Amino acid sequence: MQTRNRFRPLCLLLLLAAASACCPCRKYQKLYGAPLVGTRWLLIQLDGEEVANSDGRFSLRFEDAKRLSGRGGCNRYSASCDTEAGGHLRVGPIASTRMTCPEAQRERAFFAMLRSAVRYELDAKMLILSDSIGVRAVFQAAEEDQNTKNQKIN
């Protein structure tokens, strides 16, 4: 009887893991979601505040699993990174051009967010970056990337 009770939590845990692996939302992400690598991600929220970014001034693109680049409001930037399938992320030192503009303060906050990011999550056409405390930024896949992807499917 005691042996059966010992294995009950383990069995429940395995059942939960199996159920979450076949979750319909994961199928949705695979069918309709934007991939992490190669998608141009546009910033829509930074530190809980909505960002007006229809012109793509704040963007992010993972060139591959080890390199990212984009625009930070004024300047172009690039950095090394490590992405892992479990959503773990580490961003290395950021190199950027040095132009000044009215968005300089927000650009500094954007770069600070990138440096502090330790986790990413994909939710359909959204990318969420978090640090050790919580969500720092939300990005949306750029429309041109979605149109390109749809053309490849058709």
TrEMBL record:
Domain DUF306: 34-137
Keywords: Signal
Signal sequence residues: 1-21
UniProt cross-references to InterPro entries, sorted A to Z: DUF306_Meta_HslJ, HslJ-like_sf, Hsp_HslJ-like
Source organism superkingdom: Bacteria
Protein name in the entry: DUF306 domain-containing protein
Species this chain originates from: Alistipes communis
